[in-house]
Amino acid sequence: MTGRINLYGLDRNAMEALFVEQGLQPFRGRQMMKWIYHQGEDNFARMTDLPRTTRQWLEDNACLEVPDVVAHNESRDGTVKWVLDAGEDNYVETVLIPEKGRNTLCVSSQIGCMLDCSFCSTGKQGFSANLPASAIVGQLVLANRFLSQRGENVTNVVLMGMGEPLLNYDAVLPATNVMLDDLAFGISKRRVTISTAGVVPGINRMVESTDVALAVSLHAPDDDLRNELVPINRKYPISELMEACQRYVRHLGDRRKLVIEYTLIHGVNDSLEQAKQLAKLLRPLRCKINLIPFNPFPGSGYERPDPAVVYRFQTCLMNNGYTTMLRTTRGEDIDAACGQLVGRVQDRTRRQERYARKLGREIPTVQLAAES
Ligand code: SAH
Q1: Under a CB-based contact definition with an 8 Å cutoff, are residues 355 and 113 in contact?
Q2: At residue 360, does pLDDT exceed 80?
Q3: Is 356 left (phi over 0), alpha (psi -120 to 50) or beta?
Q4: Which structural domain, as residue segments, surrounds residue 26?
Q5: pLDDT of 298
Q6: Is the distance from the beta carbon of residue 93 to the nearest atom of ligand 1 less than 6 Å?
């Protein structure tokens, strides 16, 4: 509702400050967090240990709203994708990946993305807006409501859905604070991962403000290729990115590792030579490597490498001493795999025009994923 403050967007500090502004003690903020996240209460009238006048003030000025679910798709492999209404004809996607003993939620941080990585279909739809913190937390609330029917909850969160989290850090920071807070979701800092295409100032801000896990989408061992695949590399080249990664790893301490993500694209970045170059580049960094075979989408112009090529790349990294995971593709039948998330909207063309005008550049002509 317009004008009302959505309490899902407030971390503990902000929640305490809200109550202090109303002339109350900070502990009222903590009480509120417990009502919301431990009791799952979203009706202020039922929060009976708050003063009556405060409850009234909340009813008039606050809300607890999560985005509306427009579509809910379940994949044959158990992956669940929700399409959420982000307002003003905008839609974002959230993906739940259930695995043995854990439930990972892949959360979106922006509506679209402005980084335009050449192999990512989210990038092809352009950027519409930042999500507020409440809509980032709201994705977790929705997934937990779904999982509670099975007596389960979200155990891991990765900010690897739509958008670049470090270009919306003012919302991502409070949202991740809520994920970590014992008064809210209480997820371990090792199980909340911010993934970035390499926004160096954002990584520097993380050093000052959080200690969640960090994944960096590298995708190329040299600047020439990375400029092409991940255009933000022109602004923050590999050497600067590696320095920022070093700072973050030092900040994490206690032997925690950074995650390097590398999408393998046939004939582009998947040669043995490039694997060796990557091993050399990453030598000074305490990291593990996540390989993601490219997930095709119509009009991408790229292909997934043969399994033998993927195996050769992985083996080279492992022989160089890196823990190297191969990310198996999940939810392909519902377009929920990495880089396949697009906010499908009816008037996408119009929205692209608006976006193109905003950027002052040509309307993207790339073929987007087929409508379902
Ligand atoms: N902007 C952030 C988070 C979103 S992307 C980032 O760049 O890290 C999450 C991961 O999926 C990134 O590593 C991204 O490079 C990868 N990805 C994007 N498109 C892909 C595709 N088509 N196939 C495989 N991985 C892809």
Answers
A1: no
A2: no
A3: alpha
A4: 5-63
A5: 87
A6: no
Ligand 1 in reach of 261 Cβ (< 6 A): yes
Task: Tell how far the Cα of 136 is from the centroid of ligand 1, in angstroms.
Answer: 18
Q: Per residue in 132-190, pLDDT tens?
A: 999 999 999 999 999 999 999 999 999 999 999 999 999 999 999 999 999 999 999 99
With tokens 């973050």, the residue in question is: 248
The reply to whether 29 and 164 lie within a common domain is no
311, pLDDT greater than 60: yes
CB of residue 264 inside a 6 A radius of ligand 1:
no
Beta-strand pair 69-74/80-85: antiparallel
Do 75 and 56 fall into the same domain?
no
Ligand 1 neighbourhood includes 197 CB (under 6 angstroms)? yes
* Contacts of 319-326 spanning 24+ positions with Cβ under 8 A: 320/276, 320/279, 322/279, 322/282, 322/287, 322/288, 322/289, 323/257, 323/288, 323/289, 324/288, 324/289, 324/290, 324/291, 325/288, 325/289, 325/290, 325/291, 326/291, 326/293
Residues taking part in catalysis: 93, 338
Type of residue at 249: V
- Asked whether 263 and 188 are in contact (CB, 8 A), the reply is no
Q: What percent of the chain has pLDDT over 90?
A: 81
- Look up tokens 């900010």; give the residue: 159
What phi and psi values does residue 139 have, to the nearest 5 degrees? -65, -40
Residue 47, domain CATH:
1.10.150.530
Q: Total structural domains in the chain? A: 2
Given 37, 63, 89, which residue is the final one in a domain?
Answer: 63
Position 372 confidence tier, pLDDT thresholds 50, 70, 90: very low
Domain membership of residue 331 (yes or no) is: yes
Confidence check: pLDDT of 340 > 70: no
- Which strand (E) or helix (H) includes residue 74? strand 69-74
How far, in Å, from the CA of 118 to the mean position of ligand 1? 10
Q: Which of residues 323 and 299 earns the better pLDDT score? A: 323
